[in-house]
Amino acid sequence: MKTNMMNFRKSYIVKTISMLLLQSFLFTNIGFAAVEDLKPDSNGVYARGVSTPEDINLPKDIGLIRDTHTGAGKRLIVHIQDAHCNYEAQTNISRIIETLSDKHDINLVSLEGADGNVDTKWFRSFPDAEIRRKVSDYFLKKGELTGAEFLSITEGAPVKLVGAEDRALYAKNLKIFNTVYPARGETEKYLSDVRTALRKLKTYVYSKRMKGLDSEVEAFENEKTSLSDYARFLNKNIEKHGLKLQNYPNFARLIRTLGYEEKIDFDTVNEERTGLIDKLTEIMPENKLEKLVKRSVLFKAGKIGAAEYHAYLKEVSDENGVQVSRECPNLEMYVVYAGLYEKIKNQNLFNELGLIKNALKEKIISNEDERKLSALWDNLKVLSNLVKLELLNKDYDYYKTHKNEFKPRVFSEFINKKIRMYNLAFSIEEPNTLVRENLPKWEKFYEIGLKRDKALINNTLKAMDKNKASAAYLISGGFHTEGIKRILEKKGVSYIVVCPVITKEADSPYIKVLTNRGLAIPFLISKLVPMKGAAVRGLVRGTGVMEGEPDLAARRAKFIKAWVEQYAPLWKARFDRQRETVARATGMDTVEFDEGILARAFAIAVFEGAREHGLDASLRDEIEGLVREVFQLELVTRVATSTTGQTARTDRTDRGRQNDRRESGRNPGQRVGGGRQGTGGVRGTPIRTAIGEYEGLTPEQDAAFREILRESFAEGTF
Length: 718
Prior knowledge:
The chain has helices spanning 2-24, 87-104, 121-124, 129-141, 147-153, 167-180, 184-205, 208-221, 227-240, 249-263, 266-283, 286-300, 306-319, 324-327, 329-342, 346-364, 368-387, 393-401, 408-421, 433-466, 481-491, 510-517, 522-525, 533-540, 552-585, 595-612, 617-631, 654-663, 686-692, 699-713; strands spanning 63-69, 76-82, 108-111, 117-118, 160-163, 471-477, 494-500, 639-641, 647-649. By secondary structure, it is an alpha/beta fold. Helix 7 runs parallel beside helix 19.
């Protein structure tokens, strides 16, 4: 009997585990670029589970790790390359931080475009998490919040935000930008004319082989051909022109990976994996099944990567006498494929693609005209990226060391000479005065950007020391990456470089944000307290940045008013939905409240949240003022009657706030406000008292009203 029970128990457990494992993989299909590798938690040097930078990995649908470096010290910076105001990028930056915070407990975030503490408590005081997320998402789409700020406001992770900027350098950078940006249209038109002329000349100057290479390169760079097809083209020409594949290790891994990809039937891999797991659950001892379940759950949750998990499956299969190579040949190949793909360093791969392209050009170019035209075409790309704010640090280094090759006359002399040679019916004019004068100013813009590299690092390291953090994030544009890497390497600081995934082309409001009010949004909530207008004007206008523009205090006021205006209608709709639920729960046919009551309910909820988050009296007053303005409502401070018959005006003294806390334990039917309960004393805040003394509120409405607040926000009684 005992044996039968044990067999039944084993059979039941096996079937249950098998069912759970199969369910967990129902929507986890194998495919190219689905590989991810996050190692299990362990004690680490830099953070929980992080002993080397290579221990940090990400799901490849949110971020790609482009580079890593292990320094001599015990500090680590996760440098996230920012795509300013791109909604998908900002969303993925938020997810990257949330993922690493959850796994490795890295919670300090240093932001480009801000200085000091970036405090989001004001926004977090708005109590409904779902509405707060919707409103934050609205401003994220507009480019007026960053992904890190979104995460902090929605409390997706316990992050602390700090600014990384030297404010004066940032302001100088912005001053130059606002000077040269008006001429950008003229500059881009000139560059477009040059591009058209050079493209026409390719027909006459390039040989057939050079045209073939140029066509493939342009198709890839303009995203008209895939990385896989472009890599196959380059590999074919590497062999043809005698280049050595081993000189490009990441490209070589990609080619091997593509070879396996052609052989593997990925649908069959999924079927083979499912069958293998089913077989393992039947033959493995019960104590080993628990580990299989845990590893499978970790893989499903993105905590370990495909390479690690499938290598583990093969290892377990070998231990239990299952020959994967014979029974699951596609899965066997996938194990190798995933391991190869995992070892490819993305940034190094794209650097190698550029090296291969240039090496092939050197093999194919047959005369000086081809060489000159190819160089001018590449230089024109650098100039275009410079004007579009898309230039990388390494490209700017090239620009500085070859400055004479970028002068307009170099382009026009070559183009016009070839036009005469081939008797062509077009010409290229010299750029106008506006373009000539502004091109050097773009150079100065980038020079100050290089100086900001040092400030970004120094302020981040200071914040790490102050907060006793051995690891932190630094979020800044890709232009700063090379400078940041160089500085960190000199300082002995380890780093990883992460690029958020962007799959969709989208118009970015970044330029609008920069030019609309002069300073990017993070400065709005950097040290978010009521700012003194005179002090702000002295700080910012002293640099000449914001002449004729509103100061930061005015801009901040506009933004937080817009926040309340977005939040309030959503809250009222939520309140109205909850009203009917409470009506049924209290046995009432319906619960009716006019707009005044709804407005006061909103004020109570927000004010309570503000107090819970420790906002000081001036910020709570500011919230009240915004509620009055948005709802066009007079929230009159009421007079409370004491037990002695005297009157006292409600205020926010410490004693008044203590009374608020004591009153939070009232029953739903109890009133809040002076004299209504006969207990006397100064009770509650002005908003709370105004609610309690609203003349049209019946006892039944009062009870239902407080029940709605509890149900809506789970913030305790009111």
